[in-house]
């Protein structure tokens, strides 16, 4: 609990939580903008939100579409934002030379790692809750049709499931930031994962590549793509477990000579 309280204190005194909150606020607002344009493309064109010859197709301005957009945003944007959270939690100790102070404390290294991962999980879930609440508010203001209890429950459940899977897939980023002793290695792994996820999903093998599973689950690849199924979810869980375990083992056994 002391280690977790320390991580909370670090986050509270940092601007990074505000940056991540702003990112998810923008995501919800962009979704609302798309819904507004779909509601009335002629009005959006007159306001300069849409080119004179442009048109949006393939969606309806209703609650199911909006929830689907928020889930897709969590799948892709969440990997970047959640990855940023883990890069900061782990990489900052090395970039700011505070890791030696942590290791000098009478606290097990694995306890420190566990506190950081718990902090990351809570942080990312709070961001997801923020996204849902903003989505409900924006959708209500726009007066989107299709509101039913089943639609809301299924939409929120999809966003929650995608958020949890994305957090699990971001755990190897913590390992990269630790082994690389700084921010840049974690950012590099994060960008590589996002890029490869898009390429593999486009090739039709996303159900076998864990980092493509959240996007497939949210419907980002389209209805004609293969569903990730139980195998994809299992791979996500295995990656998350391996990421946490490998990071804890590295912190416990690695020589910290700087």
From TrEMBL:
The keyword Membrane applies. The keyword Membrane applies. Pfam families: ABC2_membrane_4. The chain crosses the membrane at residues 16-38, 66-91, 112-139, 151-175, 187-209, 229-251. Keywords: Membrane, Transmembrane, Transmembrane helix. PANTHER family: INTEGRAL MEMBRANE PROTEIN-RELATED, MEMBRANE PROTEIN. This is ABC transporter permease. It comes from Lentzea guizhouensis. The lineage of its organism: Bacteria, Bacillati, Actinomycetota, Actinomycetes, Pseudonocardiales.
């Amino acid at each position: 609990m002391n280690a977790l309280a320390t991580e909370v204190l670090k986050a509270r005194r940092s601007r990074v939580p505000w940056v991540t909150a702003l990112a998810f606020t923008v995501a919800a607002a962009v979704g609302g903008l798309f819904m507004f344009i779909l509601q009335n493309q002629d009005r959006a064109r007159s306001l300069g939100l849409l080119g004179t010859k442009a048109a949006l197709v393939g969606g309806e301005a209703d609650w199911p579409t909006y929830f689907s957009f928020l889930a897709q945003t969590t799948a892709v944007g969440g990997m970047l934002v959640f990855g940023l959270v883990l890069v900061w939690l782990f990489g900052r100790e090395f970039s700011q030379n505070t890791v030696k102070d942590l290791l000098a404390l009478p606290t097990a290294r694995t306890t420190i790692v566990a506190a950081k991962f718990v902090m990351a999980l809570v942080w990312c879930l709070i961001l997801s809750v923020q996204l849902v609440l903003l989505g409900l508010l924006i959708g209500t203001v726009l007066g989107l049709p299709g509101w039913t209890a089943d639609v809301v429950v299924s939409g929120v459940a999809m966003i929650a499931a995608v958020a949890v899977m994305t957090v699990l897939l971001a755990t190897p980023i913590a390992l990269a930031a630790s082994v690389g002793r700084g921010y840049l290695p974690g950012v590099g792994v994060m960008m590589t994962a996002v890029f490869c996820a898009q390429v593999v999903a486009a090739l039709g093998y996303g159900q076998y590549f864990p980092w493509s599973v959240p996007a497939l689950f949210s419907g980002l690849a389209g209805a004609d793509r293969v569903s990730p199924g139980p195998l994809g979810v299992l791979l996500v869980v295995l990656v998350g477990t391996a990421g946490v375990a490998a990071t804890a083992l590295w912190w416990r056994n690695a020589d910290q000579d700087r």
